[in-house]
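Before the break, one more example. Copy the sequence into your notebook; we will annotate it together after we see the structure.
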Amino acid sequence: MRELTPRIALELIAHEGIVTEAYKDSVGVWTWSVGITDASGHRVFPRYRDKPQPLEHCIGVYLWLLREKYLPPVLAAFGPHDPTEAELGAALSFHWNTGAIARASWIGRFVKGDVEGARRSMLDWARPASLLPRRRKEQTLFFDGRWSEDGTALVYGVAKPSYRPSGGKRVEVRTLVEGLFANKPAPVPVVEEKKTWFDRLFE
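Here is what the structure looks like once it is written out:
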């Protein structure tokens, strides 16, 4: 498995939640959507300050970044190993959260066949302690194939003037995510040319 899937995208959303307008994270960095900051290459501030966006746009930008910026280094870290969907999903979640897939020792150990060593060392990235539940979910997905997503997301508004997320509501997003994956350019309609009396002379 070397492609992004709806299930992988939903797993990350389940960890992150969605905030529809720009907010300040725990260290004051302007953030938006599924944990997106200016460091991603997509400008968040001031673009989304006081400007809530539809879920379709929030998730669409997230999927674009996941494919274009985060998937390639994760695939490179696997080297010749062809990951399962669960392995790819867990590794992408880890990289989305840490940006450290290229220097994380656990993935190198896994590729070399040290599965138990990889399992243990993944939890070395559980600092601060608040990250431990997420690392454990990624660990369980990667090594045991157990997913935690249920097709929903906590969608937050923003409290002001603090610009902190507030009032999370659980929303079904599976249909939207699967629809964005299935969305293909509409076929160009075939317009039947109207024949003139002159054309009919040669039928």
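Confidence is low (pLDDT under 50) at residues 185-203. The radius of gyration is 22 Å. Try to locate both features in your own notes.
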